[in-house]
Amino acid sequence: MINLRYHIVSIAAVFLALAIGLALGSTFVDSVLVSNLESRVDQLQADTESAIERRAQAEEALSGVEAERDAALAGVEAARSVRFEVEDLVRPYLPQGRLSGTTTLIVAPESTDRAAVAAIRARLDATDARPGGVVWLSEDLRLDDPDVRQSIARAFSLAGDSRNAVRRALRFLVPQALFRPAEAGSSRTPGNDVNAITDSAALDGFSRGFSSVPPTRTALTLLRDLELITHDGTGAAALHLLGGEQMRLVVVTDAAATRLNEDFVFDLLRAMADDGHSGAAVIVEVPAPAAAGAGYGTVLQLLRADPVLAESFSSVDDVETFSGDLALLVALERLPAVNHFSGADPDHGLGPS
């Protein structure tokens, strides 16, 4: 027999369970939705605040850029003003038109910093002097090697190949090739030979047969052929055409070439002075390559302490500076007057007194 009360209770229980389930489910879903919405609101608020901060930073950066731009423009104007002032200051010293008719030949040991020599060459090529290029000196010109001395003696028809005989020959023939090319020893003019030189003491120790070489052969080209010098003559006069009373040497060296300086460079300068060519060269010292470990300034200290060299040839240091670069041009323009320009002096002594 069906119990009606039991079915009523069962139906009531089902509806009660359904009501409780709906109530609990709606509460859980509402909580998740609310939580998600709150999280999204918080994220949007954080993004908004970040965007506001970035905009403030961008505005600040823009202000900084505008300030830098204004400062740069002001710097350009100031630099232009200073340039005009500097040009007015240095214009009296610039050798514009005053090196015309001269030939500038750079002489440097092969170990010298090539970049430093190139910078000096570029400066000289910008003047109105005739460019002579660069003569690079081999370390073998120290004449320590008997084979080197023998090759020189053979090329110049010397009577002997002792160090003293070769040295004396070079002391005579190299200055002659540089400053008196029409005379024997550089064979510029056919028919002239060493016999024409009346200074017999200067000829002692080598023969008089050098005049047999052709006009395109000089003491300098013979040394080149012996690979004791090399000539970088790009855009310059050929080596056998160099020489004359208007020759101006720019000797560029450093402390790393001490032995070559003492054994050949300074000896050549003394020979030039003895030959009557004081005031025909400017000596420039550049820093030695870092690996050499040689102290900067020692070359010009030796030169300026030597009474003959100091009174015969100009010198300049710190040519990589503006005032030193200018001092080199001034020194060349003032030759044959001898001047020594030191970076220890304010503006190398070129500023207003």
How does this structure look, described?
It is a single chain. With 353 residues, this protein is an alpha/beta fold. It folds into 2 domains: 93 residues; 250 residues, no CATH class. The chain is 51% helix and 10% strand. It has 10 helices and 7 strands. A 7-stranded mixed β-sheet has the order 3-2-1-4-5-6-7, with helices on both faces. α7 links the parallel β4 and β5. About 8% of the residues have low confidence.
Mean of all residue-level pLDDT scores: 79
Apparent shape: elongated
Tell me about the biggest sheet? 7 strands, mixed
Please state the CA-atom Rg, rounded to the nearest Å.
42 Å
**Structural class, from secondary structure content?**
alpha/beta
Low-confidence runs of at least 5 consecutive residues: 184-211
What is the beta-strand fraction? 5-15%
Total number of distinct structural domains: 2
Query: What's the arrangement of strands in the largest beta sheet?
Result: 3-2-1-4-5-6-7
**Termini, distance in Å?**
138 Å
What proportion of the residues is helical, as a percent range?
Answer: 40-55%
What's the total count of β strands? 7
Number of helices: 10
Order of helices and strands: HEHEHHHHEEHEHHEHE
